[in-house]
Amino acid sequence: MPFPSFLSDQLRTLVASKGSRDLLFTSPYGRPLRVNNWKRKAFDKAADTLSDNHPDLLRPTVHDLRHTAASLAISAGANVKAVQRMLGHASAAMTLDVYADLFDDDLDAVGDALSRLGSPEVVGKVWANPEIAKPESAANGLGSL
Fold first, then answer.
1. Which positions of the chain have pLDDT values less than 70?
2. β-strand partners of 45
3. Phi, psi of 14 (to 5 degrees)
């Protein structure tokens, strides 16, 4: 799971009060977190507070957190294979099927990158360098394909 560095200080504070064999995240009573208890006792209460303070928003689900994490990773420029591994999807195709619409803005970024690479300054530098400009097939006497 990727770890954003902006959480380091909070994690360092949490770890400082723990022993090497202690659980890092526990229930309010120091016991292991259980999914059902965590959802009922922590997540649902937080979702209720959010709904009370922002009645115009849809009430989030735990699964919404997963979608949010994937969306933020994609927006941050993560490659689809990294997002696939993060989510535990069997294939990148599955990730693309679910989140393909989030990659739409990437087309503009690809166009911009190609424009930069295709500028006369860049192309001129590439063709001026014989090691780069000479394709491997031409170097082997095969000519261009």
1. 104-107, 120-145
2. none
3. -65, -40
